[in-house]
Amino acid sequence: MNTAASPLLSVDNLTVEIGGANVVDGVSFDVAPGKVMALVGESGCGKSLTSYALLGLLPDAARRTAGTVRLQDRDLTALSERQLRKARGKEISIIFQEPSASLDPLTTVGAQIAAAYQTHNNVSRSEAYDRARQMLADVGIPDPDRRLHQYPFELSGGMCQRIMISIALICSPQVLVADEPTTALDVTIQAQILDLMKKLVADRGTSIVIITHDMGVVADIADDVAVMYAGRIAEIAPVQSLFDDPKHPYTALLLASVPKLHHAPKTDLATIEGRVPTLSEFGAGCRFADRCPLATEKCRIEQPPLFDCGGGHRSACWHIDRMPEIRKVAA
Amino acid sequence: MSESQENVLEMRDVAVHFGGRGGFFGSSGAVVKAVNGVDLDIRKAETVALVGESGCGKSTLSNTIVGLQTPVSGSVKISGEEVVGADSRKLNDIRRKVQMIFQDPALSLDPRSTIGATIGEPLLVRGIARGKALKERVGELLTQVGLRAEHADRYPHQFSGGQRQRVVIARALALEPDLLICDEPVSALDVSVRAQILNLLVALQKRMGVSYLFVSHDLSVVRHICDRVVVMYLGRFVEIAERDTFFANPKHPYTRALMSAVPEADPAVQRSKQRFVLQGELPSPANIPSGCAFHTRCPLATEICSTVRPELTPRPDGALVACHHA
């Protein structure tokens, strides 16, 4: 990546298998301290599985078959389940899309936040509650004293997501993994939560790995972006460089399919023909080849490596030099 | 707004309230004023976007138009015919002219019916076509939405999300409606598929002259597909304007907040844009603030806003805005 500082989180060749197919295939990326990395892609591209694998939270059907996840100088994939439990919440935390599904409906939110603190710190209940109260204030919840004693059903979706963030951050982890944290929220509330996450990055130096399908969210919060397609990273770059000058046909078409200011209304938007291959259809070559306007025989036979395009921009395409042709299609 | 033959929809002072009448023990519950006195016309082949946050009354309004919800007052006319108070036979007839498509196509299709049976059902029920003619018409509808006639024998699970939404659209078009209500039709779809469905909706309108009421929270999609935009907040319209006016010069503070809240897919634009961030969240529709319902979150609010409700008033550029200060 383009950062000079040594990475805080370093994912190398992460590979996850479901039923013999690599649904996450050789994914590597680094996140520097206080930076936001976005993993973007459409449903089924493996972005959520990648995020679960970072914390060793893969579902039963999935298995990590290769790769390492280094947090500073420790390989999280080499830890025992017991050691992992100690690391989760304290060093690396995760929040999910639907906050109301992640909170215990029968426990007050104060108790849930305090429990997260007590799990990792040998403190009294009242001390843990003090911390919880402080945390609620930090995430911008008005009247924290009253809120501590409320149950999740008494709070709105935006409020619940702030509670989730409180639980995730109360032990000051270095990395927060956020899996579609604003997808279930209204836009005005989404803006508040994104602002909150940016503030936390600035104040606490927390690094964030955010999983999203929304290019607007990426444009708002990310420093670096990895675009995933069918389990692999298609392109990885600093955010401005990715939007200004995409080097992978998939990224370029994806960006072009979002209506922009300069598009004349009611004209045709660029589309990507076909559909994402299923696990059983993964071939030997580039997994985007069947839908790619630039694809040649080589693309179907041989998997492209991530080529370095300079400035921290890398793309897994055999035909980066032919990108101007895509821009014509996408214009 | 003038009455004319060209309007496929005319709503006058429509209000839809829930609850409040006694309840089980005769105590009076809170009245939820989901829709509270709205006027809306939609012209032939026009696309009107209805924009607002969850709980603002968009879905109740859509349901009222198709007759799934009965208003407590007001009038709803589809192609000149009154829906409110119509007997069931009349209603059945009117309903042919207005159809609805929903957000998640997987939930709108019967998993045990072939899509041919699903699309053909409205035609069969109304006795419009059967046998060979029905089969031909279904094939025609499938072709119109970019699928193939031979797909008729397949089941919903054999299709992708985007293809399923095409099936839903084909079914909605089977009776050749004048008005199609699209309730977040692309929100559940992946970005690349979204563009395909938007292109299809635009093409169908050009070909068939159908009107759309397009319920959405995605302003980039709204800007692309709509002719006119209506913004709703807690059961009332706060701004109505032609697309270009709306996007060039949004006036109501809520509209401006919505626009600044939707992230642009361009980091340079997104990070340099002037933010107009709202405090707090949408109040409960069971307890709507006095005066202007938006005053509790509005950065421009003054004394008068909490006491006097602003009416929609026309502005020089043709926009209608309900605000004391905009």
TrEMBL record, chain A:
UniProt-annotated location(s): Cell inner membrane
SUPFAM superfamilies: P-loop containing nucleoside triphosphate hydrolases
PROSITE patterns recorded: ABC_TRANSPORTER_1, ABC_TRANSPORTER_2
Keyword entries, A-Z: ATP-binding, Cell membrane, Membrane, Nucleotide-binding, Transport
Membrane topology summary: Peripheral membrane protein
Residue span, ABC transporter domain: 9-255
A Gene Ontology molecular function term of the record: ATP binding
Sequence similarity: Belongs to the ABC transporter superfamily.
PANTHER family: DIPEPTIDE TRANSPORT ATP-BINDING PROTEIN DPPD (PTHR43297:SF2), OLIGOPEPTIDE TRANSPORT ATP-BINDING PROTEIN APPD (PTHR43297)
Protein name as catalogued: ABC transporter ATP-binding protein
UniProt source species: Tianweitania aestuarii
TrEMBL record, chain B:
Xref: InterPro entries: AAA+_ATPase, ABC_transp_ATP-bind, ABC_transporter-like_ATP-bd, ABC_transporter-like_CS, Oligopep_ABC_C, P-loop_NTPase
Keyword ATP-binding: yes
Family matches, as SMART domains: AAA
Its membrane topology: Peripheral membrane protein
UniProt-listed CDD domains: ABC_NikE_OppD_transporters
Keywords: ATP-binding, Nucleotide-binding, Transport
Domain ABC transporter: 9-259
Pfam family, one: ABC_tran
Keyword check for Nucleotide-binding: yes
GO molecular function, one term: ATP binding
Localization per record: Cell inner membrane
PROSITE patterns in the cross-refs: ABC_TRANSPORTER_1 (PS00211), ABC_TRANSPORTER_2 (PS50893)
PANTHER family, A to Z: D,D-DIPEPTIDE TRANSPORT ATP-BINDING PROTEIN DDPF-RELATED, TRANSPORT ATP-BINDING PROTEIN
NCBIfam families in UniProt: oligo_HPY
Entry's family note: Belongs to the ABC transporter superfamily.
Protein name: ATP-binding cassette domain-containing protein
Native species: Tianweitania aestuarii
